[in-house]
Amino acid sequence: MLRLLTLVFLLFLFSPEAFSQSLRERLGRTYVSSDSVDIIFELEKENLHSANDSGVYWFFVAEDYNRKFENELAHETFLKSAKLLNPEENSDLISLCYIRLNRLEATSGNWDQALFYSQKGLENATAALDSNYMGYALLDISVVYHDMEDYAKGVEYGKKAYELLADFSGARPTFKAFALNAIGINFDDWDKPDSALHYHYKILENIDELDSLRISFTFNNIGNTLLKQQKYQEAKTWLQTAVKVNMKDQNSYSLAANYTNLGTIAYQLRDFQEAEVMMDSAYKYVELSQSTEKMRDYLEEQYLFHKAKGELSAAMGYLEEFTVLKDSIFKEERVKMLGELETKYQVQTKERELAESRAALAENELLVKNRNNQVLLLVVFLLIILGVAFFIYYRQKSKNRHLEQEAKLQQIYAEQETQKKLHEQRNRISSDLHDNIGAQLTFIVSSLDNLKFMELSKESMASKIDQISAFTVETVNELRDTIWAMNKDNISLQDLETRLSTLISKAKNACPQIAFELHFDQNLEKDFLLNSMEGVNFYRIAQEAINNAIKHAGASRIRIYFKGTVDRLQVCIEDNGKGIAGTGFGNGLGNMKTRAERIGRALKIDSEIGQGTQVCIQ
User: Phi and psi of 600, rounded to 5°?
Assistant: First the structure.
């Protein structure tokens, strides 16, 4: 059957799935396949391709020696493994090597070497930035000082371990429990049971995260503290629980402590028979554990047990053995070496703190330098933004100034154009005054001068004076019309309509038999503006045409109408009089033609004898 199982295991070991696992994972089976350990080690020798592979291999070999209590071989092999392992790949295995070496030395009572390996483990974990194993190394130091009965230092290092692990989010719960236990056992033997119980009970607060087999020491330590407080029954309950748990994995080290404490309770209660049974069991596990510490405790309790029983001879024998063993623990050279190791640890701690401080200072300087660079870049960026903004502002301001200057020049040009037009308009008006009003006044003056030299009858003289008076009135009216035009910069069609309506009203009074009509096309906007020259010449032409129709055509109907568009205004005056013979222009028609040409228009006359006359300004 055994051969069959071995064959199945070998088939599995050489299967593709097994080879896909790492060397460390394959060697890890030695923890659970105790019957195949030798075969696994033999087969895996062929898979060692580097020093690191050899280090991993010898670590598991050393673990096997350790489980078999072959302490010397285990010690030698752990050291061999630690030297071969690559810290960058397996720093945790190196830390475990030093933890095992600490235990082996502590079990043998070599506290100085135990402390040495704990410090080596601390150096390795610190270099790897592994907080879990840094905490573990510190709690191991705490336990060593406990075993050396230097409880103050034990508490100090235990608290360092717990604080480091408590501040680390990835801390293993079991390691935190170990740290609390280290503090608790130091307080316990320092005769501070309340503090000891505080830390022991604190372990149980996280019991859901812990394996009871890994914290079986807690049940024993609580019982031990209660024992010192002489709470025997309560202590016995905790210790019996510890025995049940430790029996599951045959933890001889812990069982040695459990039975020693149960023996103490029994003889304190004067149950010497029960005490002797417990002490015998304690001795069995002390031998199995090979622990000097447990042997020391056992010998001390045997001394006290026999003293209580009254067996003074046996008691003195155990006392002598206890004293010899205790003295071996506290030899002067060992104490000196411990002091040197403590000094070395303090120096290393200071150097590490100094290095961390320098690193933090360098990091801070780098941070300040980066901030300064960022501020400098920000300032440069702001200066660029301000420069661009100023350039845009200056350019816009120059553009606005240029536009303002251009607007002023256009305004000056417009004013000049206006002044030019006004000047031209004044010139035309002056010319009109000179050509018309001036000529008419000259004619009046000449007519009056001629009267002085004429010998006319009274009736003829009166007739001449009437003619001159009528001509004067006509000249005055034309002068008023000119003044009316000069008082306005522009004349709207509405103004022109009003002026013509007044003229027609006066003509109706003088000639009531004639029908007058004034008509504006609906498409014309009456607020359309003509310049004063256009307005007065349109008016004068219409006035002249009306006078001609009244005086010379004998018309019974005269019609004036405005048509066309504001861009091309057309004014026509038509009558139903006797018409004009021929196409030549007399004085009156010639004046109208001249006025039309002054404003850039043409004068068109349509007339037939007996069919009336139409005069149009086009």
Answer: 75, 25
